[in-house]
C-alpha cells in the first residue's frame, strides 16, 4: 500500500494470547527496513467505554511519522472492542496483562527488534505505563499523549497512586525513555494540574534527559487542526 508517498504492507490479524483473549489487530510493515535492526511502535487507543478503538483518528495521524522512520506499527482493539474477545476491566489491569502478552507475541514474530515505542493516547497512556522497560539490548520508550490526569481516578477504579508509582518507576529505570505531550486546552485536565504533575515527573527522573515534556499551545484533548500537525512534528523529532 501507499500512504502519502510511503510504501508499506498491512496485515490484518487476530492474535490469540495466553491471557485467554484474542485481539483484533493491524500490523503495518514499512518497506526498505533498516539493516541495523527493526523498530516497533505499539499504539494504545482511548477508553473503550467512550468509543476508543484501534482506528482512532489521532493515533492514525501518527502512522506517517512512524513509517517514515521505518517503524513497524501495531495497532489493536483492546479486549471487548470490535472483534476482540473478553471483557474490559475497570482497573485496566487485565488490559495491561494483554499488552505484555501482545509484546511477547510481536517479539516472536518480528526478528531483530532493537527499539519498542509504546504510544498511548488518553486512557491508552495509562495502560502503557504498566509495561516495564524491556531487557537490553532493546530500547524501550513511552509516548504519553494527553495523559488523562484529571479523570485518572475514576478511569482506574481509584488506583491513582498505583498508576503514579508505576510511572515513576519507569522514570527511575535507566532503560526507559518517556515523552509526555499535552495541550494547554485539554478538556479533562487543567494546565495547572499538568504543570504540577510534570514537576513530580522531573523529580523522579532526577535531571536525566530520558524525560521530555512538551506542552502545545491551544491544543485540546482531541488534537484538531494545527495542533495535530504540531503533534506529528514533535513525534518526528523525538523518535529514537
From TrEMBL:
GO terms for molecular function: hydrolase activity. This is Alpha/beta-hydrolase. InterPro entries: AB_hydrolase_fold, Xaa-Pro-like_dom. Gene3D superfamilies: alpha/beta hydrolase (3.40.50.1820). Residues 20-132 form the Xaa-Pro dipeptidyl-peptidase-like domain. It comes from the Eukaryota. Transmembrane segments: none annotated.
Amino acid at each position: 500500500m501507499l500512504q502519502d508517498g510511503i510504501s508499506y504492507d498491512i496485515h490484518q490479524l487476530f492474535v490469540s494470547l495466553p491471557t485467554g483473549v484474542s485481539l483484533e489487530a493491524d500490523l503495518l510493515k514499512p518497506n526498505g527496513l533498516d539493516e541495523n535492526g527493526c523498530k516497533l511502535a505499539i499504539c494504545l487507543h482511548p477508553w473503550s467505554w467512550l468509543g476508543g478503538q484501534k482506528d482512532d483518528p489521532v493515533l492514525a495521524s501518527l502512522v506517517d511519522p512512524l513509517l517514515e522512520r521505518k517503524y513497524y506499527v501495531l495497532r489493536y482493539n483492546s479486549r471487548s472492542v470490535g472483534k476482540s474477545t473478553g471483557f474490559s476491566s475497570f482497573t485496566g489491569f487485565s488490559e495491561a496483562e494483554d499488552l505484555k502478552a501482545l509484546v511477547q507475541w510481536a517479539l516472536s514474530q518480528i526478528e531483530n527488534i532493537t527499539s519498542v515505542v509504546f504510544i498511548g493516547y488518553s486512557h491508552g497512556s495509562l495502560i502503557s505505563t504498566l509495561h516495564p522497560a524491556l531487557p537490553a539490548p532493546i530500547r524501550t520508550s513511552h509516548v504519553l499523549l494527553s495523559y488523562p490526569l484529571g479523570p485518572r481516578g475514576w478511569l482506574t477504579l481509584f488506583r491513582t497512586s498505583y498508576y503514579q508509582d508505576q510511572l515513576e518507576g519507569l522514570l527511575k529505570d535507566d532503560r526507559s525513555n518517556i515523552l509526555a505531550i499535552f495541550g494547554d486546552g485539554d478538556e479533562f485536565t487543567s494546565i495547572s494540574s499538568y504543570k504540577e504533575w510534570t514537576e513530580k515527573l522531573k523529580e523522579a527522573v532526577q535531571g536525566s534527559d530520558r524525560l521530555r515534556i512538551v506542552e502545545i499551545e491551544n491544543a485540546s484533548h482531541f488534537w484538531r487542526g494545527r495542533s495535530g500537525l504540531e503533534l506529528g512534528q514533535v513525534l518526528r523529532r523525538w523518535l529514537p
